[in-house]
Amino acid sequence: MPLLHNSAREVPSSRRLASGRSERNLVSRDYSDRLLASETFSRSIALPASRTPYALAVTADETCVLVADVDDHSMRVVDMPADFEREGPVDVGFGPRGIALLEGVNVAPRGTIRSFLLPKKISVKVAGAKRGKAGVKASGTFDTGPDDVDLTAPATILVGPRRFDIPGMTSVKGGKRFQFSGDGLVLQVTPSKFGTSKARFKLALKGDPGAVDVNGEFTLSYVGGGVDAQGTVILANGGFKFGKAAGTLIAPAISIRKAKAKLPGVGRHSFKFVAGVTGDGSTPGTAPNLRVAFGDIFTADIPSSALVLEGRDFVLGRDVEGGVEAVSRNFAKERVSVRGGDVDLGGIPEGPIPLLLIFEQGDDVRAVFVRGARKKKILKY
Fold first, then answer.
1. How far, in whole angstroms, is CA 230 from its chain's centroid?
2. Which ranges of the chain have pLDDT less than 70?
3. In the CATH hierarchy, which fold is given to the domain comprising 255-380?
4. What is the pLDDT of residue 120?
5. Are strands 239-241 and 217-224 parallel, antiparallel or unpaired?
């Protein structure tokens, strides 16, 4: 789907999802500049250096975009693609010199998860259960999101009902580990060695965890330094173990467990990802229509008619278009995996890179934005 882009600022953009809802999103400057560099735009409006666009609007018949100029209040008109949709004017700031109309680009929808805590184990013991043993232990994945973050900045940590406002974590061995200790709380975060946003965390709280329902919801969160991560589970007798019982992981609603792409040349890319998608664990009689978007430009539709149930997995029963070679959707394990080959994932530079996954299941649209990393011909998360 197309979008409007201002190459100097973050600009709200809109795309129509398969469910028919129009969502507003943000495209960051770095992300947008990469899209422009790959020349995936259909046309652009070049303005004189003395002029600055300040608003965009779409005509009633949705055939043109109007670009208002802040300097002389003039209006430029550009033809619109038939499938583009815009609601109302949009402020584009004071610095741009042009606006590009892009197409074929994946844009994060509203509600996209940009960082998360994915608990693998949680143990909660309330006061009085065992003398001197009250506290919380937890471990799992701490994804810091697609952007640069500062774990040494002040942050707020929630451990169930307990709140801790910390001055920041301490960097150990040049950032190989970050840790905080105080007020009975110990938190340790180990970043990825490959340069992705997928870190590991360990947390221990000594003492009374507060008013906790040992058979109810329990939330961990970390907010600060550019991170807003949360993980919520349902405890069973004070415990949680990832994958043990369906329906006990509440948030994140979607997460990338692992992803890898091989990039030998344009049009010959291959990839595989495994993602977690929360649910109640029940398997429908018929698979819903699926749609996946991976990275900047790759999208594929997997119709319900192409999926057959083998055991507890819906898998491909016939070939589908778009380069998808294998699919496994397991509702009981709340997991989806997709493999593709001979596809184009776009221009992916060396080093850390934002990596977007959008998974549509019927009318249910979920998305997560992480940071992958490319080294030579391999992209990993």
1. 13
2. 1-105, 129-132
3. Immunoglobulin-like (2.60.40)
4. 98
5. unpaired
pTM to 2 decimals? 0.76
Cα–Cα–Cα angle for 276, 282, 285, rounded to 5 degrees: 110
Tokens describing residue 325: 């070679």
Give the pLDDT confidence score for residue 285 in this predicted structure: 95
Cα–Cα distance for residue pair 325/270, rounded to 1 Å: 10
371: left (phi over 0), alpha (psi -120 to 50) or beta: beta
Look at the domain 116-251 and name its fold: Immunoglobulin-like (2.60.40)
Give dist(CA 12, CA 28) in Å, integer: 10
Task: Say how many C-beta atoms besides its own lie within 10 A of residue 296's C-beta.
Answer: 23
Q: Show the CA angle centred on residue 15, arms to residues 13 and 19, nearest 5°.
A: 145
Burial of 267 (0-12, 13-18, 19+ CB in 10 A): exposed
30: phi > 0 → left, psi -120 to 50 → alpha, else beta; which?
alpha
Convert the pLDDT of each residue in 46-73 to its tens digit: 555 555 555 555 555 555 656 665 555 5
**Tokens in use for 279?**
């649910």
Report yes or no: 337 and 321 within 8 Å, Cβ to Cβ.
no
Q: Where are the domains of the chain?
A: 3-102, 116-251, 255-380
Residue 377 gets the label, from left (phi > 0), alpha (psi -120 to 50) or beta, of alpha
Sheet strands side by side (includes 227-234): 162-166, 155-159, 217-224, 227-234, 249-251
Q: Compute, in degrees rounded to 10, the torsion defined by CA atoms 272, 274, 275, 280.
A: 140
> What is the secondary structure of 186-252 as a DSSP string?
EEEEE--TTSSSEEEEEEEEES---S--TTSEEEEEEEETTEEEEEEEE-BTTEEETTSSTT-EEE-
pLDDT at 244: 95
Residue-level pLDDT at 344: 92
Specify the pLDDT at position 154. Answer: 98
